[in-house]
Amino acid sequence: MPFLPVTPEELGGQPDFIIVTGDAYVDHPSFGTAIISRVLEAEGFSVAILPQPEYRSCEAFKKFGKPRLAFLVNSGNIDSMVAHYTVAKKRRNDDYYSPGGKAGYRPDRAVIVYCNRIREAYGDIPIIIGGVEASTRRFAHYDYWTDSVRRSILVDSRADILTYGMGENILRRLAFLLDKGVPVRKIRDVRGTVFMESREFCPHFESAFIGEYDDLKTDKKEYAKAFRIQNENQDPFYGKALVEGYDNKILVQNPPMHPLTTEELDKVYALPYMRAYHPMYEKDGGIPAIQEVQFSITHNRGCFGNCNFCSIAFHQGRTVTSRSVESCLEEAKLLTKLPGFKGYIHDVGGPSANFRGNYCEKAKKAGVCKNKNCLTPSICKNMKVDHEEYLDLLKKVEAVPGVKKVFVRSGLRYDYMLADKNDDFFRKIVKDHVSGQLKVAPEHCSNHVLKLMGKPSIETYDRFKAKFYKITEELGKEQYLVPYLMSSHPGSTLEDAIELALYLKKNRINPEQVQDFYPTPGTASTCMFWTGLDPFTGEAVFVPKDYEEKRQQRALLQWYKPENHDTVRKALYRAGRQDLIGFGPDCLVKPRVLSKEKSYGRKDTKKPQGKPLGKKPHGKKK
């Protein structure tokens, strides 16, 4: 099948829907625009794609004329602000979802900008927004880039309907109603949608009031309470409609749409994707984001791991649904026929690669447990820990003619792996599916920080690590674990960062990359960052916000790098841990005389003593 129209000439008439996206046009099922456009096409609707339009005026939005039914707007696969700015709020120079990987093709807050340009061009025309940027900002939310609580993106964008979560069935239903002539402002009972109404409106579903925006933007206790209510109602089995107040109007979120069944998910991935970026980008060097996913297979959705710093549970939900083994095999066979395929499938995964949809009978019938996690602080007794089906999937994919090797590069939930009493899956992963390095995410070593992250204890990681290297040695292989680590998460003090540095040194781990906590909308950790409260317990949480302390926590995770030594010394003096400056086996850095007096954050601290290391006397040459 050809790419969907990107010019009026290719379309040859008025489209039913125009999809406006902040990404370049890549027709691959790893891209939300591709999935939604093909789903609508399969339902008989005509769809035009308007990727990364020139946003400084409304002219580009008139390219196809008015759509018959609606504009559909998203920012792309990732949040436009995250795409543009580092955690230090510095502008990025690249954008892997844009031509040639160059930044500047989309605006900040892309959904808002695009919608306002559409209103400028066409006035009162149906606009539906979705994708991760809209989904995670559907309520009043803390905005890290302005350090304030912003209104729902539905208010600022002036769209008619916001869709949240995975949108296939939501948009099928909306398209059906619009096609039948139902005015967009009369569509008020579709699950997975958010809309604005007058105060007199009565939601179709049982509802809960979460607060007034004017209170939520100033009262941190009310904000934390509102987040908890939102979190408690994200399950389609028991979630209520939620209401938020804005002056003389209310924002209404209908309960979540039920996840796609296995059969429905199979049909989505069987649609006729081109599995490539549009040829118009060839002159610019293509779209870098396709490289990792082009020869990968997504076999599941949702994540019951529910890490507090991750928005997947808020966006995709905690219910895991999986494609059938047969569907994945058909995709594997298709991959072997694509240009450029060299025999290697880069991943068979998803949000967490080793989750399948048969994990809990209770969740299937009544939804995931409210205010309880499946895996932390310990794995629920009702959890069915079984990798048999995933193991079978991997074996069958690697047996497909033309496939030389299958890798698993998505995150593996290692506590779930350890809980499996059958070691076959663990051994299989180590033996056949690691490309020299296995990426895992312990994130920290301090258990009270890990608890606030929603992660398992460090003892669990240590057991996993020991088992991994034991099996690796038994197989006669040379393979390594690459741990993801995070600094400055809410709850992490300077002392915790020092504890982590000592743990890394003791275990001879020198991480090349570390991540400073990035407060993005829709996560419990971001709520903690803004409010200083744990939204689930109401208890106070220490939040490292001081620039210098954040810099020191990050440097401690890479204490071994010479360029970090001065910062590490400052951190150790600030924490009163001068015992870790020296030449002993437990020391993190050596002492050094500074050229000028500098404060180390403690008034009673004296300048460190010792001779300069590795420097020649000034004015002398050899």
Structure write-up:
32% of the residues lie in helices and 14% in strands. By secondary structure, the protein is α/β, with parallel strands linked by helices. The strands form seven sheets. It has a nine-stranded mixed β-sheet with strand order 3-1-4-5-8-9-12-11-10, sandwiched between helices. It has a three-stranded parallel β-sheet with strand order 20-21-22. Strands 2-13 form a two-stranded antiparallel ribbon. Strand 6 and strand 7 form a beta hairpin. Helix 9 runs antiparallel to helix 21, helix 13 runs parallel beside helix 15 (388-398) and helix 20 runs parallel beside helix 22 (547-557). The longest helix is centred in the last third of the chain and has 17 residues, at 458-474. Residues 596-622 have low confidence and may be disordered.
Throw out a few tags for this protein.
alpha/beta; 23 helices
Produce a short descriptive summary.
With 622 residues, the protein is α/β, with parallel strands linked by helices.
Question: In terms of topology, how is this protein built?
Answer:
Elements: H1 8-11, E1 17-21, E2 26-27, H2 32-42, E3 47-51, E4 70-74, H3 80-84, H4 110-122, E5 127-129, H5 131-135, E6 141-143, E7 148-150, H6 153-157, E8 161-163, H7 168-179, E9 193-198, E10 207-212, H8 213-216, H9 220-232, E11 241-246, E12 249-253, H10 262-269, E13 276-277, H11 290-293, E14 296-298, E15 300-301, H12 312-315, E16 321-322, H13 325-335, E17 344-345, E18 347-349, H14 361-366, H15 388-398, E19 405-406, H16 414-419, H17 424-432, E20 437-443, H18 447-453, H19 458-474, E21 480-487, H20 494-506, E22 515-516, H21 524-531, H22 547-557, H23 565-574
Parallel strand pairs: 1-3, 1-4, 4-5, 5-8, 10-11, 14-18, 17-19, 20-21, 21-22
Antiparallel strand pairs: 2-13, 6-7, 8-9, 9-12, 11-12, 15-16
Helix pairs in contact: 2-7, 9-21, 13-15, 20-22, 22-23
